[in-house]
Amino acid sequence: MIEGYALIHDEREALHQRTLRVRFPEGFATLLFLQHGVLRHGSDGSIVTGPALCFWPGSERPTLTLDAGSATRLLGLSDTIILDAIGARSESVHLRMLVERPFTAALEEQPKIPQVEMMFSWFGYELNSAHLQSPMTLSAYLRLLLITALRVHNPEPIEKGGEQTNILRRFRHLVELHYRDHWQVSAYASELGVEYERLHRICKRETGRAPAELVHERLIAEAKARLENSGHPLKKIGADLGFADGSRFSHFFKRRTGMSPGAYRAIVSRPAGEDLSELRRNFSDWP
């Protein structure tokens, strides 16, 4: 199970310029810690000078080249550990938006560098110790790494459509707070101070999904995470997600996924090695 959750790869210090030969499973995101030196990536050979944290979503496989004297550590991250690390708190929306696209976060402040080095070391020790390998611990380390990146990352300002983007960001912030409360879309629009039709247009234009679809997909993503990672009865999971009873939860889940919660849990609990990539939720399912 743990290999389908996360992987760590340490690169030896480059004696000359060389391309990294790291092959994480299909769909795994990459979090790279450039300890020192220079990293070149992409077709245009964009340059990153260490120390820095760099991230690419699972949909991207950049060409990574280290200059001589450079050293790096890499994490391969499944959608499951990313969702676990982000969590479901009001501030989670900022982490969610951070990992939607590639980013580079320069670690210019010296106190952050040993902290990141230590978190990578702890992550590796937990992952590689057969008697440990706790998903809760690994996701906690990843959350700290993402928060560190968030605090130093300065994304490029969005000049065009800034107001619409702000409304969408606020909407998603509210969804993180209230998706388990089963708010109607009209309640979200009222809280945002916009008309229902305007919120609907913005969501469709920016994400290709209606507001209700986004809320439902967030619920499904959380339901799948709990079915995969907890042994709680279906009734309790449904209650935790705001459903009045287990049958309503099962009906909602089956209507959205094509199978019952119990059937989903049975399939994802099969021994590792089976191809479940089409079944497990994808981080990009909730844009």
Automatic annotation (TrEMBL):
<dbReference type="InterPro" id="IPR009057">
    <property type="entry name" value="Homeodomain-like_sf"/>
</dbReference>
<dbReference type="GO" id="GO:0043565">
    <property type="term" value="F:sequence-specific DNA binding"/>
</dbReference>
<dbReference type="InterPro" id="IPR018060">
    <property type="entry name" value="HTH_AraC"/>
</dbReference>
<feature type="domain" description="HTH araC/xylS-type">
    <location>
        <begin position="169"/>
        <end position="267"/>
    </location>
</feature>
<protein>
    <submittedName>
        <fullName>Exoenzyme S synthesis regulatory protein ExsA</fullName>
    </submittedName>
</protein>
<dbReference type="Pfam" id="PF12833">
    <property type="entry name" value="HTH_18"/>
</dbReference>
<dbReference type="GO" id="GO:0003700">
    <property type="term" value="F:DNA-binding transcription factor activity"/>
</dbReference>
<keyword id="KW-0805">Transcription regulation</keyword>
<keyword id="KW-0804">Transcription</keyword>
<keyword id="KW-0238">DNA-binding</keyword>
